[in-house]
Amino acid sequence: MISRTMRLLSSGGGSGGNGDPVRWGILSAGRIASDYVKAMSVTDGAVATAIAARSPASAREFAARHSLPSAAVRETYGDLLADPNVDVVYVGTIADAHYELAKESLMAGKATVVEKPMGLSLGEVEGLVDIARERNVFLMEGMWTRCFPAIHKLRQLIATSAVGPIIYAQGDFGWAFPSDQPDDRIWLPRSGGVTLDIGMYLAQLGRIAFPDGTLKDVTATGTTKNGVDYTVSATVAYDRPNAEEEDVGDGLLQMTLTGAANTEERCVLQGTRGRIVLDGPSHVPQRIRVVRDAGREGRAEEVAYDYPLPEDPHGEWNNPGSIGFVHQIEEVGRAVREGRVECESYTWEDSLEVARIIDGILGQVRGGKKERLTREEDGDWLEGQRAGSS
């Protein structure tokens, strides 16, 4: 089945055919959207042609900063979504707005990439996937890590049983939250906290480590600060079809997240015959080590695979390693050109499973508080914090 976006490209109703670049519309003038557009500027076959933000002034400033023509500025989000010269929409706003804007984009028939998290609950993610499926429109959650060459190699190593069946995977991710900035989005009562900010980077490892497994259970504990989850430890269990035959039992994913410190951010996938190490920073993976077991007294054999980041003409980024967005932008472009509605590196089912894990963690660490907050309450809180700090 050919997606609606591909029909437009093929019929001349859009760009992206015959070597023309895929045209992106950017919903947000924030820090991550800035990095995304900088990476796009050095990505073959992609161009930012429209920008809209909460205010036209912010959109104009963003366009000037990124050398986009003044004609690229749209007065409202709706104007951008109605623009026939936009093939793919990138939603890079604060997480509270992801669901509504992605829904509007899909309803407008636009191929849509939504920054992480796609939604603030499993229900929101299910809603977006249902719309994309019903309307036959491309949708992807922006799990850019999955598009890195190192992750493609990791999946190949697991598929070929390079270290035997994986018994468990474990990883950490932490960055020091800005305690002196009470109006930072990380403290938003509904969308803030460490789990919704970076938890998906570790939660997505389960479907890599146990590709034939079925999510079984999520157990989590943690601490909170300013009403949001601050440090979290979680174990995710997977049923797998050959557990008894392989004599390995359930697959286990162990993850530690924190907003109290910058951590090493290394992941280890332990197999029956060795381990695969994803050296930090594992969300921008550049080096994999395969360590094969030589017995308790023997010397382990280690093979390293290096995947440097793309050439970086910019140098300065809001978030380290953002030049790696190039990989995701390229994959999305290929998928849209080929008429697919999902990205092979990170599918709808990947997003749904990660949302189930995140819901499970937050339900235990925050006691369901996030479900009781409305978007309006979260917005009121943020405006109040800004007013108090001005």
Describe the 3D structure.
The chain has 390 residues and is α/β, with parallel strands linked by helices. 35% of the residues lie in helices and 22% in strands. It has helices at 4-10, 31-40, 56-65, 77-81, 98-107, 122-135, 149-159, 194-203, 205-209, 243-246, 325-337, 348-365, 369-372, 375-389; strands at residues 22-27, 46-52, 88-91, 111-114, 139-141, 166-174, 214-225, 228-239, 251-258, 267-271, 274-278, 287-292, 301-306. An 8-stranded mixed beta sheet has the order 7-8-9-6-10-11-12-13. α5 (98-107) packs parallel to α6, α6 runs antiparallel to α12 and α8 packs across α12. The longest helix has 18 residues, at 348-365. The chain is globular and about 65 Å long. The N and C termini lie far apart (53 Å). Mean pLDDT is 90; it is low at 369-390.
Overview in brief:
The protein has 14 helices and 13 strands.
Topology:
Layout: H1 4-10, E1 22-27, H2 31-40, E2 46-52, H3 56-65, H4 77-81, E3 88-91, H5 98-107, E4 111-114, H6 122-135, E5 139-141, H7 149-159, E6 166-174, H8 194-203, H9 205-209, E7 214-225, E8 228-239, H10 243-246, E9 251-258, E10 267-271, E11 274-278, E12 287-292, E13 301-306, H11 325-337, H12 348-365, H13 369-372, H14 375-389
Parallel strand pairs: 1-2, 1-3, 3-4, 4-5, 6-9
Antiparallel strand pairs: 6-10, 7-8, 8-9, 10-11, 11-12, 12-13
Multimeric state: single chain
- Overall 3D shape: globular
Strand content: 15-25%
Main structural class? alpha/beta
The main β sheet shows up as: 8 strands, mixed
Number of strands: 13
Number of helices: 14
- Mean pLDDT, rounded to whole units? 90
**Widest sheet, order of strands:** 7-8-9-6-10-11-12-13
Radius of gyration: 21 Å
Q: Low-confidence stretches at least 5 residues in length (pLDDT < 50)?
A: 369-390
Order of helices and strands: HEHEHHEHEHEHEHHEEHEEEEEHHHH
What share of the residues lie within helices? 25-40%
Cα separation of the termini:
53 Å
